[in-house]
Write a structure and sequence with these properties.
The structure holds two protein chains of two kinds. By secondary structure, chain A is α/β, with parallel strands linked by helices. Chain A has eleven helices and nine strands. The longest helix of chain A is centred in the last third of the chain and has 24 residues. Chain A is globular, with a radius of gyration of 20 Å. Chain B is about 35% helix and about 20% strand. The chains are: A alpha/beta, B alpha/beta. Chain B: InterPro entries: THDP-binding, Transketo_C/PFOR_II, Transketolase-like_Pyr-bd, Transketolase_C.
């Protein structure tokens, strides 16, 4: 768990550096080597690691627009994922998806950019597992801002009424871009929404990976044993802006400071030391993680950009015969 | 409905240049001052001022009751705008990216767009749905679409696409005052954001006072005799650039900015086509079943005998890819527009 968390944190720090290359001094979103928006998850590590440690490759995970820590914890190929974030041909999605849309069939991971969008597909993966009588489960991650979306609430109900093996994990980082939680809901504890659907709901109140581990274990075992869905809300925090380039003018300085003090990685390190893990051991883990990240980023940067003709591939699995006359689907004419 | 070309500097008699975002906000603020019933709601529209600066400064002047941050519940708040509009208010509701329409499309096209008709005219829905459109910054398939054709296809919504600050302000005044639902689609790349530099064209002189631009009046942004280029949004500027590149080669292209898709100014397009005989339509939406096909169909219906060549450039029926090389391939560039005009001219 610790290793996953330090990998994820260092990954975000390194990506931040790489993302800002070419976008300085005046931030220009369309310059530099990394395309598009970038939502970094520094501060969210406990949730990805504490949940995914209970999962196997055949379990499905759907993640939202802030996905890297979850992908890492789920075992998504770090090199290919990084190449995808750099928009390269050898990326997970051949450069078509990018950082918000990473798909890795080897470990059944997907993420997407629209709020609560991953909830229904997670329910579907759970439906498939149930119909096929396997004991695999599905986990849908979403932000606390996403729990007011119909797609989430409908998914809770569908999962509950069919007793599906799915766990919903709300990552509460206090903010939905510039909107604090109390501006958009009167229910401070998001896990209480479970009550309306007659499923277990639990909130992990602190940025505490061990507590996440325990809550997730209960929920995932319950799902695996065929006892239906659960909802967990995990307190995490946002150490960076909503996306890179967000100056956070709306956010009080004190809130940023307070968030940074709740460092779940430091907290877990303390727990580990208390259990006799030496500083040397922790350093070694950290170094190994850093090396892995640096290697993935270096590899990704060497990868080629996709050939423009690739833009026309993969619209369909079975592409229909061409009927368009003027470049409707083939590159040259356009 | 045909309109004379608008020479912006002359018509406005002002040197004050604004970005498109400032111009749009100025119109909203003016209408909010005039009419207590106008309010704005959306995600991150209060303290943040809109992710694409569509509401900068409004919270300070009007307070949280009239500039409302709302939960990420588009079905609820877009539908609420419909209800408030039917109750006689004039809500402006922002869908942060047009790509998110999917989570709330029922409220948009079954309520907002149809209630006037289905009530036999006994209800009006005087609301504005503002939304950011467009790509060019590599945000991939769920954040880069324009969906112009989708909204214009479904009857009951007026659809507005400004390409300059002058047009943005006048069209916003018209939109808020209109008794029908108006979808006001602003292109991110044209807003004048510090972090997403605009081309030079959209920043224009803008009069201080309020003024309206009637819907259904296309604007000839460049006069020419050889080839008609019909376009909208960001591609007005790409087409103007392509046209000026071709000047030296003696090719004289006319560039028509549609400005509104519903209603559509067919007359201006036909007049131009009758003059040039050659039509290029450039669109940042998907190619099939969309704006390009519609314009060409109207040209064929109205001026078939005058047409000698037709071409279109649009997103070639693929979702918008992430990698730079791929997005550049599918989003019609200035070079591709210039090449298409040249080809038509031959
Ligand atoms: C349906 C929809 N509406 C709005 C957005 C724009 N948006 C992207 S992230 C975000 C805030 C999400 O907050 P939260 O769910 O708490 O996750 P966080 O970003 O804090 O991790 C919003 C409003 C979107 N992607 N999809």
């Amino acid at each position: 768990m610790y290793e996953q968390m330090v990998t994820a944190r260092y990954y975000e720090e390194r990506l931040q550096e790489e993302y800002l290359v070419g976008k300085q001094p005046a931030f220009d979103i369309s310059a530099g080597p990394i395309p598009g928006e970038l939502h970094l998850a520094a501060g969210h590590e406990s949730s990805g690691a504490g949940v995914c440690i209970h999962l196997r490759d055949d379990d499905t995970v759907t993640a939202p627009h802030r996905p890297h820590h979850i992908a890492i914890a789920k075992g998504v190929d770090l090199k290919k994922m990084t190449a995808e974030i750099f928009g390269r041909e050898t990326g997970l999605c051949r450069g078509k998806g990018g950082h918000m849309h990473l798909f890795d069939p080897d470990v059944n991971f997907a993420c997407s950019g629209i709020i609560a969008q991953g909830c229904p597909p997670a329910v579907g993966a759970a439906m498939a597992a149930k119909k096929r009588n396997t004991d695999s489960v599905a986990v849908a991650f979403l932000g606390e801002g996403a729990i007011d979306q119909g797609g989430f609430l409908e998914s809770l109900n569908l999962a509950a009424v069919q007793d599906l093996p799915v766990v919903f994990v709300i990552e509460d980082n206090d903010w939905a871009i510039s909107m604090p939680k109390d501006r958009v809901t009167d229910v401070e504890d998001g896990s209480r929404r479970a009550q309306g659907f007659d499923m277990p709901g639990e909130r992990v109140d602190s940025d505490d990976a061990v507590a996440v581990y325990e809550a997730a274990e209960k929920a995932i075992m319950r799902a695996r044993d065929g006892n239906g869905p659960s909802l967990i809300e995990v307190q995490v925090h946002r150490r960076m802006g909503h996306f890179m380039g967000d100056a956070e003018a709306y956010r009080p300085e004190a809130d940023i400071e307070r968030a940074k003090q709740r460092d779940s990685i430091e907290r877990l390190a303390d727990d580990l030391r208390a259990h006799g893990v030496s500083d040397d051991d922790l350093d070694e883990i950290r170094e190994r993680a850093h090396e892995r990240v640096d290697e993935a980023i270096a590899w990704a940067k060497e990868q080629p950009e996709p050939d423009p003709s690739e833009a026309y591939e993969n619209v369909f699995t079975n592409p229909p015969a061409q009927t368009a006359t003027d470049g409707g689907s083939e590159g040259g004419e356009q | 409905m045909a309109t004379e070309s608008r020479d912006i500097t002359e018509a406005t008699e002002t040197d004050r240049e604004l970005t498109m975002s400032r111009a749009m906000v100025e119109a909203i603020a003016w209408e909010m001052r005039e009419n207590e019933e106008v309010f704005y709601m959306g995600e991150d529209v209060a303290d943040y001022g809109g992710i694409f600066s569509s509401t900068t400064g409004l919270l300070d002047e009007f307070g949280r009751d009239r500039v409302m941050d709302v939960p990420i519940s588009e079905t609820a708040f877009l539908g609420a705008a419909v209800g408030a509009a039917q109750a006689g208010m004039r809500p402006i509701a922002e869908l942060m990216f047009v790509d998110f329409f999917g989570v709330a499309m029922d409220q948009i096209y079954n309520n907002m767009a149809k209630n006037t008709y289905m009530s036999g005219g006994s209800f009006s829905v005087p609301m504005v749905l503002t939304t950011a459109v467009g790509g060019t910054y590599n945000d991939a398939g769920q954040h880069s679409q324009t969906l112009y054709g989708t909204f214009a296809h479904l009857p009951g919504m007026k659809v507005v696409v400004p390409s300059t600050a002058y047009d943005a302000k006048g069209l916003m005044h018209s939109a808020i005052r209109d008794d029908d639902p108006v979808v006001y689609m602003f292109h991110k790349r044209l807003m004048g954001l510090g972090w997403m530099p605009s081309p030079t064209g959209p920043k224009t002189p803008v009069p201080e006072e309020d003024y309206t631009i009637p819907f259904g009046e296309a604007d000839i942004k460049r006069h020419g005799n050889d080839v008609t280029v019909v376009t909208l949004g960001l591609h007005v500027h790409r087409s103007l650039e392509a046209a000026s590149q071709l000047e030296d080669d003696g090719i004289d292209a006319e560039v028509i900015d549609l400005r509104t898709l519903v209603p559509l100014d067919t007359e201006t397009v036909l007049d131009s086509v009758r003059k040039t005989g050659k039509l290029l339509v450039v669109d940042e939406d998907y190619q099939s079943f969309g704006v390009t096909g519609e314009i060409i169909a109207r040209a064929a219906e109205g001026a078939l005998d005058d047409l000698s060549a037709v071409k279109r450039l649009a997103i070639p029926d693929v979702p918008i890819p992430y990698a730079r090389s791929l997005e550049d391939e599918v989003n019609p560039s200035t070079d591709k527009i210039a090449a298409a005009i040249r080809e038509l001219h031959e």
